[in-house]
Task: inverse folding
């Protein structure tokens, strides 16, 4: 079984401030981890993914995430928020094997608001 | 052209009606999925298919059915729509690692 918990359904930051969106996962087999972004009235777009290579993963739009096995975490960060980052962000886990192989389980989502 | 297309994009229907949501993909992937999105609940898996002859229920399949007509096509049906099926529906396709490519979504309202 696999699950994802995103801490904080809403996060608000000022433009230029650090963005930190938290994600913890549970998986009985080695996980693959993903962050997706959803802009208003659009589908989901992949930001970045971890598939057992480097633990620090860089994605699009200046985002990055670090896989920490000991903490079962995959937090998303960006050093300096931009107004265009305002969106909803989803963390998701897939398994490298087992009965959940290839299936994504999503967190509840975090809405990021960026203030001028 | 988009890799994953969904039709219709918006639909309003009445309780008890049968409706079908269609999805097509040009990624060449074998795997396809249907999700629904509700505020505060993230995306929940309705059905998934790992190839044309493979159909599996997800976590919330009650009230829904699917058909995999071809590698590129996967449709979702609501046999008798009810108001709590009002939601945003997404189709997706993936490679074997699980990275999924999403369609633009269908906003369904059941009155």
Result:
């Amino acid at each position: 079984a696999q699950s994802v918990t995103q801490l904080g359904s809403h996060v608000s930051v000022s433009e230029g401030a650090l963005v930190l969106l938290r994600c913890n996962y549970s998986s009985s087999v080695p996980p693959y981890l993903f962050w997706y972004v959803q802009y208003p009235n659009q589908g989901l777009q992949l930001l970045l993914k971890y598939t057992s290579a480097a633990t620090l993963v860089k994605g699009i739009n200046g985002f990055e995430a670090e896989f920490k096995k000991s903490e079962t975490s995959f937090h998303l960060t960006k050093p300096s928020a931009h107004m265009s980052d305002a969106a909803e962000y989803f963390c998701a886990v897939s398994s490298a094997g087992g009965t959940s192989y290839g299936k994504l389980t999503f967190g509840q989502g975090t809405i990021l608001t960026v203030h001028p | 052209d988009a890799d994953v297309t969904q039709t219709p994009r918006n639909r309003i229907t009445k309780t008890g009606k049968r409706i079908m949501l269609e999805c097509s993909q040009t990624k060449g992937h074998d795997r396809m999925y249907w999700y629904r999105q509700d505020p505060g609940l993230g995306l929940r898996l309705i059905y998934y298919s790992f190839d044309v002859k493979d159909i599996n229920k997800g976590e919330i399949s009650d009230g829904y059915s699917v058909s995999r007509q071809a590698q590129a096509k996967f449709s979702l049906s609501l046999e008798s729509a009810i108001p709590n099926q009002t939601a945003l529906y997404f189709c997706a396709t993936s490679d074997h690692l699980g990275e999924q490519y999403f369609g633009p979504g269908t906003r369904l309202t059941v009155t």
Summary: The mean pLDDT of chain A is 91.
